[in-house]
Amino acid sequence: MEGDPNLAALLDLYPWKPSLALFRALERRGVRRHLSRLSSPVLDLGCGDGEINRLFLPEFDSVGIDWGPEPLPKAKRLLGKVAQADARRLPFRSGSFGSVFGNCAIEHFPDIDLCLAEASRVLRPGGTFIATVPSDHWKSLYVWNRFFSSLGCPGLGRKIVDAHDRAVVHRNLFGPEEWSERFRRAGLEPLSFDPYLSARGARFTTFLESVLARPFPFPGFMTRSGTFYFLSGVLRRLGGRRFWKRAFTRLIRPFYEEDIGPEGIAAGTVLVARKETGG
């Protein structure tokens, strides 16, 4: 399993962030379990630079949109068709797409009900909406929330995770029941809510990501994510990329292979819904 192509592809994309590579590898595996439901063209909501789309859905013709213009030139090279657009006002005709996809995007969207209604509008009848999002367990699984709550300081733990969610603009952290209600209001039939990233994996990823985001107490690295830039520079010189890819594969593989368990408590969810045929 050390040569698993899914882990390998994501470690190639994020060579010095094994925590992010793990998160994305689990998302990719979850999305690709539903390939039989998808059809071209795919609208990618929040496509970024297009790298995730080409790793997750290389078999499909995709059109990408993103709020900001910065990543779109690269996305255009990878996807062919992109647009700077707002998910609340999609610049496409009704019924233009066989599928709508969003990877860790829709949890950030303001006016989520309007965004879902627009996604439903541009889908063909019977088309599939699929997205990965942090789950409603995200806050409780966040490592510093769990740590301080275990010490009898739940208020401090909650403040830390709330501050993180404000910084990354997490707006829509819902459970299956609320997502189902919102899907139905938008004319989408809920099909599946697949959990990914176990509680143990969530502790690992949120701990490492929170550490890497910190300034590092060394000249030139005392800015946000300074720890990441400092450590990645050190690792490049101590073993090189191939050595650390093997080491990181061994590090994250147990989390990648770990079962969620029957209680379904996980940090992420793959949402799948279908456009109602009468809509």
Approximate shape: globular
Strand order of the largest sheet: 3-2-1-4-5-7-6
Unreliably modeled segments: none
**What is the mean pLDDT?**
95
What percent of residues adopt helix (DSSP H or I)? 40-55%
CA distance, first residue to last residue: 44 Å
Main sheet attributes: strand count, strand direction, barrel closure: 7 strands, mixed
Report the order of strands and helices. Answer: HHEHEHEEHEHHHHEHHHE
Overall strand count: 7
What structural class should be given to the helix and strand makeup?
Answer: alpha/beta
> How many separate helices?
12
Which percent range describes the beta-strand content? 15-25%
Rg, rounded, reads 19 Å
Write the layout of secondary structure elements.
Blueprint: H1 5-13, H2 18-32, E1 42-45, H3 51-56, E2 62-66, H4 72-79, E3 81-84, E4 97-103, H5 112-122, E5 123-134, H6 138-141, H7 143-150, H8 154-167, H9 176-185, E6 188-196, H10 199-212, H11 226-237, H12 240-257, E7 268-275
Parallel strand pairs: 1-2, 1-4, 2-3, 4-5
Antiparallel strand pairs: 5-7, 6-7
Helix pairs in contact: 1-2, 1-12, 2-10, 2-12, 7-8
Question: What features would you describe in this structure?
Answer:
- This protein is α/β, with parallel strands linked by helices and about 280 residues long.
- Helix content is about 45%, strand content about 20%.
- It contains 12 helices and 7 strands.
- It has helices at about 5-15, 20-30, 50-55, 70-80, 110-120, 140, 145-150, 155-165, 175-185, 200-210, 225-235, 240-255; strands spanning about 40-45, 60-65, 80-85, 95-105, 125-135, 190-195, 270-275.
- A 7-stranded mixed beta sheet has the order 3-2-1-4-5-7-6, with helices on both faces.
- Helix 1 packs across helix 12 and helix 7 (about 145-150) runs antiparallel to helix 8 (about 155-165).
- The protein is globular, with a radius of gyration of 19 Å.
- The mean pLDDT is about 95.
